[in-house]
Amino acid sequence: MLLFNFYTMFNTLSDKIERAFKVLKGQGKITEINVAETMKEVRKALLDADVNYKVAKQFTDTIKEKALGQNVLTSVSPGQLLIKITHDELAQLMGGERTDIKLNNNPTIILMSGLQGSGKTTFSGKLANHLKTKRGKNPLLVACDIYRPAAIDQLHVLGEQIGVEVFSDRDNKDPVDISRKAIKQAKENGNSVVIIDTAGRLAIDEQMMNEIAKVKKEIKPDEILFVVDAMTGQDAVNTAKAFNDRLDFDGVVLTKLDGDTRGGAALSIKSIVNKPIKFVGTGEKMDAIDVFHPERMADRILGMGDVVTLVERAQEQFNEEEARKLSKKIAKNQFGFNDFLAQLQQIKKMGNIKDLVGMIPGVGKAVKDMDINEDAFKSIEAIIYSMTPQEREKPELLNGSRRARIAKGSGTNIQEVNKLIKQFDETRKMMRMMQDKNAMAKMMRNMPKMGQ
User: Fold this and answer.
1) Shortest CA distance to 233 belongs to which of 272, 274, 183?
2) pLDDT surpasses 50 at 140
3) CATH code of the domain containing 129
């Protein structure tokens, strides 16, 4: 299954901007000539990424204006200074700061809008799952697409998948009435959030706009989110403007951010409609939803990684009690393959491996062209599952005949089994060393000698 990620989406743009900054490499100061040359390349890179022309021009003009006349510190090169200014302006272009959805009322009413095919129904499910698992809310999903029975069925399937109740009335052809009844039920049943999935069309039309405007007027939602397919590039921005003119929505959701998306919608939409991007859809699974952080996105576009998001994802899988137990096992040299497998499962839950590696500063560009196989863990899991419970607990039992049996049982070969056991032994030694302060101190003392 294809997992979409922002890093892939902005790879080409990131490379082109990096090449633009090379114009300043080795130069002693910022001048009008070298800045103009650099900004010309940056503007070209933005236009190639399908950024709106006016937005790209204003963006580069602002950077040029801020860069000229600035004194360059002796510890900072002209290129570094321009990257800093560009980073800050990129973050500003995408909204400056993270903008949260409003969850003040009980129940909070969230109205979803967008064209058919934008991923609106799927995102409604993702948002319900996010609010339930991350924010402790009790959401109710409401099927208000009175034209497409498949959308109602889809919402019910998603609701069952994430354990969230879905309200629908297939015989009712009035979305306002369906919404009212759903809100009444939510109040009676103690649902803290109501997410209303409305009908979409293949193109903007007057009937569609009148219908959703009527729903807005009657139910007075606390939050209106506009869901847009980022793959449509500048069309996404134009559609957002048309919807905003009628609905005055509160925020944008960008979906379908795959490797073919050039990133123009994310960089243009805030400037055109003056509404923040609040969420992004980052894959097909129900947990593939990210809160949008402009600063972090600017980091990633400029190849600076995204350590904060990486740490946050790790913390979501972190269990203090389990960590304490694991620490005791490591101290007693009882760390076995079951523990190794548990750690592997936690890493997998954090998301796409290439995406995770791309969040590490300086590493992203090195792996962007590498084919990192998401199925690589399968052979490791197969090998471990082919061990007996005793072998998993006591890896030292794994002699030649046992290894041959495991290779046969896992559908791998003896070399793969030996490689995994060697990596496991090295991991176990490193874990013990990190717990042993004396061993760590000795290693640090020996480091200068290793370089001699």
Assistant:
1) 272
2) yes
3) 3.40.50.300
Provide the number of structural domains found in the chain.
Answer: 3
21: CB partners within 8 A, 6+ apart? 38, 79, 82, 83
Determine, yes or no, domain membership for 1: no
Q: What is the 3-state secondary structure (H, E, C) of 90-125?
A: HHHHCCCCCCCCCCCCCCEEEEEECCCCCCHHHHHH
Residue matched to tokens 């114009």: 23
Mean pLDDT on 3-32:
55
Q: At which residue do the structure tokens 């006349």 appear?
A: 69
Cβ-contact 239, 113 below 8 angstroms: no
Note whether residue 333 is domain-resident. Answer: yes
In terms of domains, do 446 and 395 share one? yes
Looking at the DSSP bridge assignments, the partners of residue 237 are: none
78 & 143 share domain: no
Please, which pLDDT band fits residue 159 given cuts at 50, 70 and 90? very high
The confidence score (pLDDT) of residue 52 equals: 75
First and final C-alpha spacing in the chain: 49
Q: Is residue 325 part of a domain?
A: yes
- Write out the residue range of the structural domain in which residue 411 sits: 315-450
Average of per-residue pLDDT across 156-175: 91
241: pLDDT strictly greater than 70: yes
Is 305 among the domain residues?
no
- Which two tokens mark 248? 């005055």
Whether residues 268 and 371 fall in one domain? no
Longest dimension (CA), the chain: 81
DSSP string, 150-216: HHHHHHHHHHHHHT-EEE--TT---HHHHHHHHHHHHHHHT-SEEEEEE---SS--HHHHHHHHHHH
Q: Compute the average pLDDT of residues 11-17.
A: 60
Regarding whether 274 and 232 lie in a shared domain, the answer is yes
Identify the DSSP state of 259.
Answer: T
Q: Mind listing the pLDDT tens digit for each residue in 79-96?
A: 666 777 777 877 777 777
d(CA 337, CA 328): 15
- Do residues 103 and 140 touch, judged by C-beta distance below 8 A? no
Asked if residue 107 has a cis previous peptide bond (ω within 30° of 0), the answer is yes
Share of the chain above pLDDT 90, in %: 22
Neighbour tally for 161: CB within 10 Å: 12
Average pLDDT over residues 250-279: 74
pLDDT above 70 (res 151): yes
**Phi, psi angles (nearest 5°) of residue 260:** -85, -10
Specify whether 281 is located in the same domain as 215. Answer: yes
CATH of the domain at 330: 1.10.260.30
What residues form DSSP beta bridges with 229? 255
135 and 206 together in one domain: yes
